[in-house]
Design a protein that fits this description.
Number of domains: 2
Oligomer: single chain
CATH architecture of the largest domain: Roll
Radius of gyration: 23 Å
Strand content: 15-25%
Shape: elongated
Order of helices and strands: EHHEEEEHEEH
Strand order of the largest sheet: 1-2-3-4
Largest sheet: 4 strands, antiparallel
Number of strands: 7
Number of helices: 4
CATH class of the largest domain: Mainly Beta
C-alpha cells in the first residue's frame, strides 16, 4: 500500500485532512483591517455631513445674522468625523469577529452576526458556479472573497468575504468538483 506524500506547508488540505473545515472557521486576523476600512470611512463621512448640517442649523437658530456660523460648522464636522469613524470602526470590528464559514459534506454555510444571527446554507446541489474576487488590498494581505452563485432568484449568491486565499481556492475547487460529480450522475 503506497501512501501519498504530505501536502507542503501552506497548501489547503484535501482528502481526510479536509475534515478540518467541518467546524466553524473564523476569518484570518489580517482581514480585520479590510472590515474596518469598509465601515469607518463611509460612516465618518455621513456623520461629518450630519454634524456640519446640525451645527449650521444651530448657528442659524442662535445667531439671526449668521455671523460665527463657520466655526460651528467646522466643529460639527470634526465631531461627526470622530464619532462616525469610531462607530464605523466598532461596527467593522464586530462584523469581523462574528463572521464564520464551514464546509461539510452537504455544502457550505456562512454565519454572520451575534445579536441578529444569520446563517446561510448552500447545499452542494444548488451551486451553479463559483467566483473568486481579489481586490488590491486583499491580494496584498493574501485574502480573497468567494462568491457562490446558486440556483434560484432570491439571494442567488452567497458571499464569504476576506477569507484566506488558499482556503478560498480549496473551497472553490472542492465545491466545483462536487458540482461536476453531481452532473455526471
Amino acid at each position: 500500500m503506497t501512501q501519498s506524500p504530505p501536502d507542503p506547508p501552506g497548501t489547503p488540505a484535501t482528502g481526510p485532512a479536509a475534515d478540518q473545515f467541518l467546524d466553524w472557521q473564523a476569518l484570518p486576523a489580517r482581514a480585520r483591517l479590510l472590515f474596518l476600512l469598509a465601515n469607518a470611512p463611509p460612516l465618518a463621512f455621513a456623520c461629518a455631513l450630519g454634524g456640519s448640517l446640525l451645527a449650521k442649523l444651530g448657528a442659524v437658530l442662535l445667531d439671526a445674522d449668521g455671523a460665527g456660523g463657520l466655526p460651528m460648522v467646522l466643529v460639527g464636522a470634526a465631531l461627526g468625523l470622530l464619532i462616525g469613524g469610531g462607530l464605523g470602526g466598532m461596527l467593522g470590528h464586530k462584523q469581523f469577529r462574528h463572521t464564520y464559514w464551514r464546509l461539510d459534506p452537504e455544502g457550505l454555510a456562512v454565519r454572520r452576526g451575534r445579536m441578529w444571527l444569520r446563517e446561510t446554507r448552500v447545499p452542494v446541489t444548488r451551486v451553479q458556479h463559483l467566483d473568486l474576487k481579489r481586490g488590491p488590498l486583499q491580494r496584498r494581505r493574501g485574502l480573497a472573497t468567494l462568491v457562490v452563485h446558486t440556483a434560484g432568484t432570491r439571494n442567488s449568491s452567497v458571499v464569504v468575504p476576506n477569507i484566506d486565499f488558499d482556503d478560498a481556492q480549496f473551497l472553490r475547487d472542492r465545491l466545483g468538483r462536487q458540482i461536476d460529480l453531481d452532473h455526471d450522475d
